[in-house]
Design brief:
The complex is a heterodimer of chains A (about 425) and B (about 100). Helices cover about 25% and strands about 25% of the residues of chain A. Chain A has about 425 residues and is α+β, with helices and mostly antiparallel strands. In chain A, the strands form 3 sheets. Chain A has a 10-stranded mixed sheet with strand order 11-12-8-7-1-2-3-6-4-19, sandwiched between helices. In chain A, strands 5, 14, 15, 16, 17 and 18 form a 6-stranded antiparallel sheet that branches. With about 100 residues, chain B is α+β, with helices and mostly antiparallel strands. Chain B has a single domain, classed as Alpha-Beta Plaits, CATH 3.30.70. Classes of the chains: A alpha+beta (about 425), B alpha+beta (about 100). Chains A and B meet through helix 8, strand 14, strand 15, strand 16 and strand 18 of A and strand 2, strand 3, strand 4 and strand 5 of B.
């Protein structure tokens, strides 16, 4: 049996969680998922500004903090610059053996494939000149091969989140690429823990008021067995709760057809899975069922769409809600007078006597958005009475990096492993 | 007898682009039949009539007593394009539990 902890559900998740996982109880592998759909485009921008950036820059310090415990670390912290990430880790921890899995980056080859948008059917050529980053989702087998080198730390870029968890099972148990049910069992466990504390009591609706000690919530651990049985648990003494309810909520999280959860290595059927209570803070996951891996790999592409901004104002009683609506009408009339046009805009009013007005706009051109950001704050003096909550000042203009999901042939992607000693 | 869905089920929602998915889970698996009968895609779409612009598709997970609703065109573009406060559809899970159903 091996213990795999997941200490990061996205870049920006608790810095302390992976430290607690490593220090507060037994653990064999620590996996860290840093990459959301558009994170790659943010990292790409950082790399353009500085060629030695483009990865999760808090990762090397984390490795330095925890490596002495001897837990193997597998992370997609490499972003669009996994080699630079590995070099920084090596600088801080010269005794560690580091393996980097590369090959996910397809930015220089996007001309070679149609890369039809999964949602709209349009070819990527319609936005080609705006593409910021393009990466194929790679699976768990290259990561397992990297473990085979004896590395202490495995760093990669855009791999499937759940593959980070499947990889040590492949390496330890020797599962083959056609052991579909075993692969599905590993992916199912990976899916349950890939969002960190979302399966240990975080963001859990069932009985949420009684979930204990969220301030010291334990991040999830998979106890994986060679026959595919996995137990989801957390370190004893940590906060939160692992229950059938918390695990069920996560099993259906961000899922389309539960009979066919696509990953690079296997299509997992979540309707076959059996969940059973295995004692306090323990849920056993069995009966994984898998179908052969898909012919195509998913690509994660981000492109520059345009610009957006949002701002809020707070109105106090009496009639906070009416004041907020009147304020929004004034902003919109001002935009009309100024001749500003937007591709989309939203007005939301939350609350009643006390109300928060939130407005947002989006446009291809930066100028109208920039101009719009100057129209909300003046309402404090020149609009309905009692506006407050403007302490953050004028709304900021943000670039919109939009997501372009597509498929490409498996043969188009070849991974390789680089070992830094 | 009319009850709120919250009395027999919990839920979690999330996003994939402009799609929101809502997993609804019976506290007691014996109540799964009620979910199957009461939570039709049409009723879910009507419950969120102002937010779901596209189709609603329902998938069944009898193994955990749950239904999964895949709601298209529900986030004004979704991801970074969406201007909504709830651009990731996190509030749909709590929102569906206020539905009134026949027990």
């Amino acid at each position: 049996m091996i213990r795999i902890g997941c200490g990061q559900g996205f870049w920006g998740d608790s810095f302390e969680a992976p430290i607690r996982l490593v220090e507060d109880g037994p653990l064999d592998y620590l996996v860290l998922d840093y990459l959301a759909e558009v994170t790659m485009s943010i990292l790409q921008k950082q790399k353009l500004d500085n060629p030695s950036f483009g990865y999760a820059r808090d990762f090397p310090a984390l490795v330095e903090r925890i490596h002495s415990k001897g837990v193997k670390i597998i992370a997609n912290s490499g972003g669009v610059n996994p080699i630079a990430c590995a070099q920084e880790v090596r600088k801080r921890c010269p005794s560690l053996k580091i393996a980097v899995v590369i090959g996910d980056d397809i930015l220089n080859r996007i001309d070679q494939y149609p890369l039809l948008n999964i949602d709209t059917g349009q070819p990527l050529s319609t936005v080609k000149e705006h593409v910021l980053s393009a990466n194929a989702y790679i699976g768990a087998f290259p990561l397992a091969d990297a473990l085979q080198t004896g590395a202490d730390v495995i760093i990669t870029g855009r791999c499937a989140d759940a593959a980070l968890v499947l990889a040590p099972m492949l390496f330890e148990f020797g599962w083959s690429p056609t052991d579909w049910h075993l692969l599905a069992a590993g992916i199912t466990a990976g899916h349950i823990v890939e969002c960190g504390a979302q399966c240990t009591g975080g963001n859990c609706l069932a009985d949420w008021e009684s979930i204990p000690n969220l301030a010291t919530i334990g991040y999830p651990i998979v106890e994986a067995h060679p026959d595919g049985t996995c137990v989801i648990t957390k370190h004893s003494g940590s906060g939160g709760r692992v229950s059938l309810a918390s695990v069920k909520e996560q099993l259906v999280y961000e899922v389309g057809d539960p009979r066919a959860y696509f990953t690079p290595d296997v299509i997992a059927d979540f309707t076959a899975v059996s969940l059973t209570d295995d004692g306090p803070d323990r849920v056993k996951v069995t009966k994984g069922r898998g179908l052969p891996r898909p012919q195509m790999l998913k690509a994660s592409i981000a492109y520059h769409w345009g610009w957006k901004a949002s701002g809020t104002l707070t109105y106090g009683p009496p009639q906070g809600r009416e004041k907020a609506h009147r304020a929004a009408a004034i902003v919109n009339e001002r935009c009309q007078l100024l001749g500003l046009h937007f591709d989309d805009q939203v007005t939301e009013v939350f609350g009643d006597d006390w109300s928060i007005l939130r407005m947002a706009v989006r446009a291809k051109q930066k100028a109208p958005v920039e101009r719009w950001t100057r129209e909300m704050i003046p309402l404090v003096l020149n609009g309905p009475p009692g506006a407050t909550g403007y302490g953050d000042g004028r709304p900021k203009v943000h670039q919109v990096a939009a997501y372009w999901p597509a498929l490409l042939p498996r043969e188009a992607v070849s991974t390789r492993i680089q070992v830094l000693k | 007898m009319k009850i709120r869905l919250a009395q027999i089920a919990h839920a979690r929602s999330g996003d994939k682009g402009d799609i929101v998915n809502i997993g609804v889970i019976a506290y007691n698996e014996s109540d799964y039949e009620i979910l199957l009968r009461e939570l039709t895609p049409e009723r879910v779409k009507a419950h969120f009539s102002e937010r779901i612009q596209g189709t609603v598709e329902r998938f069944e997970l009898p193994n955990i007593g749950a239904l999964n609703f895949v709601c298209r065109q529900s986030l004004m573009g979704g991801g970074t394009l969406s201007l909504l406060s709830d651009a990731q559809g996190k509030s749909f899970g709590g929102g569906i539990l206020s539905m009134e159903i026949e027990k």
